[in-house]
Structures are given as C-alpha cells and as structure tokens.
Design brief:
The chain has 179 residues and is of the alpha+beta class. It has one domain: Alpha-Beta Plaits. The chain is built from eight helices and four strands; from the N terminus they run E-H-H-E-H-H-E-H-H-E-H-H. Strands 2-3-1-4 form a four-stranded antiparallel sheet. The two termini are 26 Å apart. The structure holds inosine-5'-diphosphate (IDP) and magnesium ion. Inosine-5'-diphosphate (IDP) binds next to loops.
Length: 179
C-alpha cells in the first residue's frame, strides 16, 4: 500500500473565491527503505534511523532480514538485464539488512531526497549517501522510487500484519493541518 488516505480530512475547499487553487493537498504515502548490509556492518543503522525519525517520518514497519536469493532477485527484478545484477544480488544477500516501512506526507520523494543520488559521488552533502558512502555498489540505503514500486516492494518485504498503523502525539507538530 503506497498511498494512504489523509489522516486528517481536508475541511476547507481547495479553491478560493476566484477558483484559484489554494493549497496542494498533502499526500500521505508509505514507502520501503532498506539499510543494506554495508549499513549494518558499518554500525550505521541507529544513525540512519535517527535521520528518518528526526525528519518526522513515521516508522510503521521494521525488521532485520537475512535475504535469500529469490527475494533479492525479485526486489531488483527491474535490473535483471544490467551487467551489475549478479553482483548486486550477491551484495544484498551477503549479510543481514534492515527493512523499514516509513510513512509521511510525500514520503516517497522525501526518502529519495534524504538518501541522495544513486552514485555517492553525485549525492549532495547532507544526504545519507553524500555523507556516508563512496561506491555505487555499496551505497548503504534503498528507497522505493514511486507509488507503484512502493506498493510492490512493501508487499514483497512485509506481510500485511507486520505494518502497524498508529497515532503519534507529535504528529500535530509534524503534519500541518489542512488549510
Ligand atoms: P537506487 O538505489 O538509487 O534506486 P537504482 O538505479 O535503482 O538506484 O540501482 C539499484 C542499485 O543497484 C543501486 O542502489 C546500486 O547499489 C546498484 N547499482 C546501480 N548502478 C550500478 C552500477 O553501475 N554498478 C554497480 N552497482 C550499481
Ligand atoms: Mg531503484
């Protein structure tokens, strides 16, 4: 499930008196993030999780997984024809990783931006890859790249009962009320 209904219903019209668009409604999304085996081995799990939490994203699923080849190949199926496919599957199965489901307004775009560009030398400082990685084959994190892939990947990594919906006291300070 990549796209969720707004937690707080919009109570005011989205168009003003002159029919101009007043606000872009926030879209609450869920997305899959992996802290890959290099992140686990380099003891970066806590720091990476802290970045996502501090951003305001809500953790709705979390587990440590020793990935088998079948799941790895399905997760990276879109890259099957790429020359790096086998080494990518070797790498992702080389040790445990941490799978996260994160929720928030525009979570898919927020996570892609927070993780940074695929090639760490092109990733902006301040991003996870821009601060913590050097090599494209060991770039620490994965995040779904769109609504469809988020839905597919969440279903691949989490059973429905492993994703938890809940309210946080801080949400009113993180998620702005609808205008
Ligand atoms: P993304 O992780 O930023 O979405 P993708 O293009 O989907 O990037 O590639 C999936 C993963 O495959 C990357 O995170 C990276 O670890 C690996 N990868 C991508 N391009 C290369 C490459 O040219 N050589 C080796 N590994 C690569
Ligand atoms: Mg990708």
């Amino acid at each position: 499930m990549g796209l969720l209904p707004l937690r707080r219903p919009t109570t005011k019209p989205l168009r003003g008196a002159n029919n101009e668009r007043k606000v872009t409604p926030a879209v609450t999304e869920r997305t899959l993030v992996l802290i890959k085996p290099d992140g686990v081995q380099r003891l970066l799990v806590g720091r990476i999780l802290a970045r996502y939490e501090e951003r305001g994203l809500k953790l709705v699923g979390l587990k440590l997984v020793q990935v088998d080849r079948d799941l790895a190949e399905r997760h990276y199926a879109v890259h099957r024809e790429k020359p790096f496919f086998n080494s990518l599957v070797d790498f992702i199965t080389s040790g445990p990783l941490v799978a996260l489901a994160l929720e928030g307004p525009n979570a898919i775009a927020v996570l892609r931006a927070t993780n940074g560009a695929t090639r760490p030398w092109e990733a902006a400082p301040g991003t996870i890859r821009g601060d913590l990685a050097l090599e494209v084959a060991q770039n620490i994190v994965h995040a779904s790249d769109g609504l469809d892939t988020a839905a597919t990947e969440l279903a691949l990594w989490f059973k429905p009962g492993e994703l938890v919906s809940y309210e946080r006291e801080i949400d009113r300070w993180v998620v702005a009320p609808a205008d």
